[in-house]
Design a protein that fits this description.
The complex is a heterodimer of chains A (163) and B (795). With 163 residues, chain A is of the alpha+beta class. In chain A, 34% of the residues lie in helices and 15% in strands. Chain A is globular and about 50 Å long. In chain B, a hairpin with a 4-residue loop joins strand 26 and strand 27. Chain B is globular, with a radius of gyration of 28 Å. In chain B, 28% of the residues lie in helices and 24% in strands. Classes of the chains: A alpha+beta (163), B alpha+beta (795). At the A-B interface, helix 2, helix 3, helix 4 and helix 5 of A face helix 1 and helix 18 of B. The complex binds FE2/S2 (inorganic) cluster (2 copies). One FE2/S2 (inorganic) cluster sits at the interface of chains A and B.
Chain lengths: 163, 795
């Protein structure tokens, strides 16, 4: 059995046939060649695969692709807005500025979670950030610079909103 | 364009753009035309005889292309996985070295041992077929703990390895130590366990292999920290593929921590299979598969004794350790608990006599090998724990006992009684810095405040030294290394003056593309943006030993520095000709070659251009082109060190330990990029805190099942486990590396476990607690507290 789904992917209408068992992370990586969404575990623990579904952060490794019909999906490739550009989102800039990444494997998931956190609560405290990142594991950075990056990125997002 | 950015600056990283925008290129991101999928069938038993494998149902399953087993590998006369270090016992008898077949033959020896490889059109088809494979096992009892494995009557893994002992290794002057113990005013004793860990880089291991019949060439893309070593070990020693017919690529790699620095059987099987099926094959491990197949770390059981005189001076240190090797010898396995452990037992102290015995033991567990720090965290842990025990037993302050025994700065270079000679260091300076930064003098106020809330607060110290930048090849060879330990770099100056560096180290998060570019930018006066660093591809890079043991900057950076010196030397020759001056009169500074004492000069770009457009060029005496290569073999290890101070608060109701403050002052030698060094320290410290408080690989004795086999059961530190850390460097320069660098990748992991556990014990010391094994989980602490609060029996 094959299911046809239509959804908005990084701002573009997309229609594709999927098997009912296909997971969103798999669809993105294997079929749509969007390999920025990473798979780090098989237990929904690590957060490497976080994307935004209708504006909310979700772990795409446990979400069925068939459920995407009629939704809006944002992946790391669409985060900076202009497709194909080298321009970055303020959160991405903040991660670069504050060395919030090392090997880069957890980074796309971290960024997607971070943007969602900052959108949901504009006045994030350090405790909010640490708590909000509970579902994302980073083995490299020890989190300190990620926390600093998220706070700075949230401030930059606020400033951009204020304008 | 852009500026010269040199040593000591913190430019933003070159590699970040691709990682931040989802454009990294990890092995699992790569696709090849006609690619198939491979799945490994692994033993569900810890110890069993392989009675037979029936492939027929699997082969008939949809999409299946091949099913390969150990018998097929044996029929193709493939070698077994080589061990890179051969150690010997005190009498010079070599270690027992049973074969490590890439697919099990005759017996399986751990849960996860590979028994077959299934290749199909899609991953789902390969997995479905793997389910249909009938493997007949005769299950044997498993032994997973080292104490159990050496007991008489224990299950034996190999017929010719009695008592499961691979090697009975020793180091130091046993007689001198015994004499010192007889004279001691006090002897402190401690038994401890250094818990087994699983590295868990966030990117699971993966590989793609491809064979091109037209050229008879193989390509292997693999998540490796050392692609050239994989090419050498796998090509020359396992599969008999000539080196020039084999390309190994390790592209972006999502963290390593040691776990990705070994030659794994999966790499050999997939490469061999790619030729058999004549199609590219991809294998990507799941996290759960990683738990039972990535090499594990640590796993020691130790008895230690420290002899002291009446003033608290250390007279001698004696350590007996049983070290778990798992089911087979991994690439560096036997080297870790021996050569990287024993020689570090001196720490930063003047202990005159040390003796260490290590029994290296086989068990039915995943093979154990180097994990961040490798041997040195184990040495630091036992030493820094027993120093605290001695201090408390003798009633000497813990800082004071350390001071009384520390090697003074003036005493460097310092020869220890256990092989190594530290070239430079200042442990007292690190300690003093850390005491201030951690605000130790106000600790009692904080402790009293915690007590008012019903909490126990504790402070813990760890002063340590590590050996990194693995040593001269000659020295390592004497210790049993079967390879060289140098590094290579090629500096290719393009006709435009831009630079590409080909280097044999590997970048998997450490920021080499940035740090190495800073070195070139400073040394050649070339803009930072005009330098590119190439690594991880045996077709592009001449040779190299990869990245592990904090060696990249120490050894690789030295090779790079040497190669840039050669570029400058050739540039001077060209400049001398163009400027019609004597070579000795040419100076090179800030990207300009000039004649001393004149304003006549040529820019670096002009010299590069002349080298490639040799119209006015002394072709009789000088070759065109500007590309230089250097190999660097270090003269000694480097010895980073430092002092870490942890402060914890314990909730007696739940047993939960909260790390409330963490301070580290580390001596990593010259700091090339402070931002990157700090990031390495943060990450390392949290991995050590993970060992101290959360992480533990637990096996079931008897069945050999790994009970902590997923991220649900193996607790990794998360953002809310940590406070902000307080990090500083206090550097003395390495006296023998070209830039004075010492290495920083592992120091955090080496310093932190002892600091945290010493703090936990301090917090509980009023209850008579003298030791807590890692990890100090709420459950473990709660039980200790229950026992401590039991009323003492009256009789
Ligand atoms: S891959 Fe989705 S949570 Fe780990
Ligand atoms: S940067 Fe490597 S896992 Fe986070």
């Amino acid at each position: 059995m094959i299911v046809q789904i239509s959804f908005t992917l990084n701002g573009r209408p997309t229609t594709i046939d999927v098997e009912p068992a296909t997971l969103v992370a798999e669809l993105l990586r294997e079929r749509l060649n969007l390999t920025g969404t990473h798979i780090g575990c098989d237990t929904s623990q690590c957060g490497a695969c976080v994307v935004h579904l209708d504006g909310l952060p979700v772990k795409s490794c446990t979400l069925l692709a068939a459920a995407l019909d009629g939704t809006t999906l944002l992946t790391i490739e669409g985060l900076h807005g202009a497709p194909g550009s080298n321009q970055m989102h303020p959160m991405q800039e903040a991660f670069r500025e504050h060395h919030g990444l090392q090997c880069g494997f957890c980074t796309p998931g971290m960024l997607m979670t971070a943007v969602a956190l900052a959108t949901e609560k504009p006045d994030l405290t350090e405790a909010d950030v640490r708590h909000g990142l509970e579902g994302n594991i980073c083995r490299c950075t020890g989190y300190q610079n990620i926390v600093v990056s998220v706070m700075a990125g949230a401030a930059a997002m606020n400033a951009a909103r204020g304008e | 364009m852009g500026n010269v950015i040199g040593i000591g600056a913190s430019p933003k990283r070159k590699e970040d753009q691709r990682f931040l925008t989802g454009r990294g290129n990890y092995v699992s991101d790569i696709k090849r035309p006609g690619m198939t999928a491979g799945v490994f069938v692994r033993s569900p038993h810890g110890h069993a005889i392989l009675r037979g494998i029936d492939k027929s149902a699997a082969l008939a399953s949809p999409g299946v292309i091949a099913v390969l087993t150990g018998e097929d590998a044996a029929a193709d006369k493939l070698g077994s996985l080589p061990c890179g270090w051969g150690i010997t016992d005190a009498k010079g008898v070599p270690m027992k070295e049973p074969p490590f077949p890439m697919l099990a033959q005759g017996k399986v020896r751990f849960v996860g041992d590979m028994v077959a490889f299934v290749v199909a059109e899609t991953p789902a088809q390969a997995s479905a077929a793997a389910e249909l494979l009938t493997v007949e096992y005769e299950v044997l009892p498993s032994v997973v703990g080292v104490l159990e494995a050496v007991r008489p009557g224990a299950p034996q893994l190999f017929d010719d390895v009695p008592n499961n002992i691979c090697c009975d290794w020793e180091l130091g002057d046993k007689a001198a130590v015994e004499t010192a113990f007889r004279k001691a005013a006090h002897v402190a004793k401690l038994s401890l366990v250094n818990n087994r860990l699983i590295g868990n880089p966030m990117e699971p291991r993966a590989a793609i292999a491809e064979y091109e019949p037209g050229t008879d060439r193989f390509t292997l893309w693999t998540t490796s920290q050392f692609p050239h070593v994989v090419r050498f070990l796998m090509g020359a020693l396992v599969l008999n593929i000539p080196q020039h017919k084999l390309r190994v690529v390790a592209p972006d790699v999502g963290g390593g921590f040691g776990v990705k620095q070994f030659h794994y059987g999966e790499e050999a099987v997939i490469t061999w299979a790619a030729k058999r099926v004549m199609r590219p094959i991809k294998w990507v491990a799941s996290r759960s598969e990683g738990y039972v197949s990535d090499r594990h770390g640590r796993d020691h059981v130790t008895e230690a004794e420290l002899a002291l005189d009446e003033t608290g001076k250390f007279l001698a240190f004696r350590v007996n350790t049983l070290a778990n090797m798992g089911g087979y010898l991994s690439t560096f396995g036997p080297n870790i608990p021996t050569n990287l452990y024993g020689p570090l037992l001196g720490g930063v102290y003047t202990t005159p006599a040390i003796y260490c015995n290590v029994k290296v033991v086989f068990t039915n567990t995943v093979p154990v090998d180097a994990y961040r720090g490798a041997g040195r965290p184990e040495a630091t842990f036992v030493l820094e724990r027993i120093v605290d025990v001695a201090a408390s037993e003798m009633g000497i302050d813990r800082v004071e006992i350390r001071r009384r025994n520390m090697i003074p700065k003036e005493a460097y270079p310092y020869q220890t009684p256990v092989l190594v000679q530290y070239d430079s260091g200042d442990p007292m300076g690190c300690l003093d810095g850390a005491l201030v930064a951690a605000d130790v003098k106000n600790f009692d106020i904080r402790k009293a405040e915690s007590a008012r809330r019903g909490k126990f607060r504790g402070l813990g110290y760890s002063t340590y030294v590590e050996a990194c930048g693995l040593a001269p090849s000659r020295f390592a060879g004497r210790l049993g290394a079967r390879g060289g330990l140098y590094e290579s770099a090629t500096v290719r100056v393009h006709p435009t003056g831009q630079v590409t560096v080909m280097i044999g180290t590997h970048n998997h998060g450490q920021g080499h593309e940035t740090t190495f570019a800073q070195i070139v930018s400073e040394k050649l006066g070339v803009a930072f943006d005009n330098v590119d660093i190439v690594f991880g591809d045996t077709d592009r890079v001449q040779f190299g030993m990869g990245t592990y043991g904090s060696r990249s900057l120490v050894v690789g950076g030295a090779a790079l520095s040497k190669a840039t010196d050669k570029v400058v030397a050739k540039g001077k020759k060209i400049a001398a000709h163009l400027l019609e001056a004597a070579e000795v009169d040419i100076q090179f500074e800030a990207g300009k070659f000039s004649v001393a004492g004149t304003d006549r000069m040529k820019t670096f770009e002009e010299i590069a251009g002349a080298a490639y457009v040799p119209h006015d060029y002394p072709l009789e005496v000088l070759e065109p082109g500007l590309e230089e290569q250097a190999y660097y073999d270090p003269v000694n290890f480097t010895y980073p060190g430092g002092c870490h101070i942890a402060e914890v608060e314990i909730d007696p109701e739940t047993g939960t330990v909260t790390l409330v403050n963490y301070t580290a002052v580390d001596d990593v030698g010259t700091v090339i990029n402070p931002m990157i060094v700090e990031g390495q320290l943060h990450g390392g410290i949290v991995q050590g805190v993970g060992q101290a408080l959360y992480e533990n690989a637990v096996y079931d004795e008897g069945s050999g099942q790994l009970l902590s086999g997923s991220l649900m059961d193996y607790c990794m530190p998360r953002a809310d486990h940590m406070p902000m850390m307080n990090i500083a460097t206090h550097s003395t320069l390495c006296t023998h590396t070209p830039m004075g660098v010492k290495g920083c990748g592992e120091v955090g992991t080496i310093g932190s476990p002892a600091a945290v556990i010493n703090a936990v014990v301090d917090a509980l010391s009023h209850l008579g607690v003298t030791h807590v094994d890692m990890p100090a989980t709420p459950n473990r602490i709660w039980r200790l507290l229950q026992n401590a609060s039991l009323p003492v029996a009256a009789e």
